[in-house]
C-alpha cells in the first residue's frame, strides 16, 4: 500500500528555518515524482516544489515563484524520504503542508488540478509567528 507521511511542522519565527519530511512506504521514492504543496483554509492549494522520478526525468526539480530561493527540495534514497527545507520563512508561509507521489512522475504541470498523483499525505501544520 502506497503511503506518504509528512512531519517536521511546527511553530517557527519569521526568518527562521524548518525542514519538512515526506516519508514514503510501499514504494521507492527514487522512482516517483514527489511534490510539495500547502493550503490555507479558504484558499486554493498551492504547489511549491517537485522533484521528478529518476526513471523519467532524472530528478528534475522545480519551484514556485513564491518559494524559489528560500526553499529547497532533496531526496534521501536510503531513508526513502523527500525533504523540503524552508529557509527565511515568512508569515505568509503559514499553512498546512502536504506531499504527494506519482509513479514515474515528471513534475510537468505538477501544480495543476488534474495532475495524476497516486497518493497524498495527511499534512503537517507550519505556523510562522513571533
Please give a structural write-up:
The chain has 130 residues and is mainly beta. Helices cover 3% and strands 47% of the residues. The protein is built from 1 helix and 11 strands. Strands 2, 4, 5, 6, 9, 10 and 11 form a 7-stranded mixed beta sheet that branches. A 4-stranded antiparallel beta sheet has the order 1-3-8-7, with no helix packed on it. The longest helix has 4 residues, at 54-57. It is globular and about 40 Å long. The mean pLDDT is 96.
Structural class: mainly beta
- How would you state the average pLDDT, rounded? 96
Coarse shape = globular
Task: Tell me the span between the first and last alpha carbons.
Answer: 40 Å
Helix content: under 10%
Q: What is the ordering of alpha helices and beta strands?
A: EEEEEHEEEEEE
Oligomer: single chain
Number of helices: 1
Taking the sheet with the most strands, its summary is: 7 strands, mixed
Number of strands: 11
Radius of gyration of CA atoms, rounded to a whole number: 14 Å
Sequence stretches where pLDDT stays below 50 over 5 or more residues: none
Strand residues, percent? over 45%
